[in-house]
Amino acid sequence: MPKVTRESGDRLVADNRKARHDYHLLEEFEAGLALRGTEVKAAREGRIQLRDSFCKFERGEAYLFGAHIGQYSHGGYATHDPERPRKLLLHRHELNKLHGKTTEKGLTVVPLRIYFKNGRLKAAIALAKGKNTIDKRETIRRRETERETRAAIKTRRV
């Protein structure tokens, strides 16, 4: 069963944890997804994977590439292509802002998670800058020291 996020009651379907490891996330946006019926039903079953997905701009619109939405279990003859590009539904000013920043500064747009909000499937996307291996090691080192300090404080209290 998909998770329910604490802050809003939205139902989390897929999470891209690798994106937080590989990129510095600068700014986050919420986008709708243009999907077919069997894709939405498959999403309700939790059959979405975002691991190697990315966003790309074509003809003035944003598209989600590489996201895998598996086949709906009771699909019958009405099926969809699991790897097809899906249009992201954003406001024009958000599209212009994202497109401008990705072309000038060499930034990229990555999907972070897909979730249901009020019965509609939404994608959280972020403007991101790639990390190099030194930054990744530093992040891991910082996380380990935080974990060790929490453990030390916990044992001290007891």
3D architecture notes:
The chain is an alpha+beta fold and 158 residues long. It has one domain: Small Protein B, Chain: A (Beta Barrel). The chain has 4 helices and 9 strands, in the order βαβαβββββαββα. The strands form 2 sheets. Strands 1-8-9-2-7-5-4 form a 7-stranded antiparallel beta sheet. Strands 3-6 form a two-stranded antiparallel sheet. Strand 4 and strand 5 form a beta hairpin. It is globular. It starts with 10 loop residues before the first strand and ends with a helix. The relative contact order is 0.23. The mean pLDDT is 85.
Sequence-ordered SSE layout with sheet pairings:
Elements lengths: L10 E5 L1 H6 E11 L3 H8 L3 E2 L4 E5 L2 E5 L2 E2 L16 E4 L2 H14 L2 E10 L2 E11 L2 H25 L1
Antiparallel strand pairs: 1-8, 2-7, 2-9, 3-6, 4-5, 5-7, 8-9
